Amino acid sequence: MSIYWQLFTSFFKIGAFTFGGGWAMISIIEREIVDKHHWIERSDFLDLLAIAQSLPGILAVNISIAVGDKLKGGKGSIIASLGTILPSFLIILAIAIFLTPDLIKSNRMISSVFMGIRPAVVALIVAPVITSAKAAKLTLTTIWIPAIVALMISLDLGTVSNPVLYIVLGGLGGWLHWKYTTKSLHN
Length: 187
Hints:
The protein is built from eight helices and no strands. By secondary structure, the chain is mainly α.
């Protein structure tokens, strides 16, 4: 089987069977590109994930472009990103043609399906957070950094809702932790 076909079908599955956005896709992407195909190592995946999140655009598309580029250059990037984008495009096109907002709200079965998807999306978001925390080697001494940032985000402090500020604060927290642990080792 051609590597291009594998790239396309793998990212097509990711795009087709993931609901809830980028975070919900992470565990499926990781399973496909790290565990199943061994296209990249788990540590490289975490680096790729950090880069993909910091770039503008859709997380899954950013990852597909990077993986496609790593495997087959520009052509691989195009094939992988098309695989990611095409399912969403086709699903949205079908919804736009056949389902109006009034039909979704008034049809109890369709409304129930969407309500049933919500808890599954939460689970799909929590799973990669736990996996990423383990891979990043978070411990009880370092968990305070993402916990404080998550708390600040959830409180939505109005003037402090800039994501760049959270990244800087997280980096500052990591630096403080490093400085403290380094100082402790030398004493």
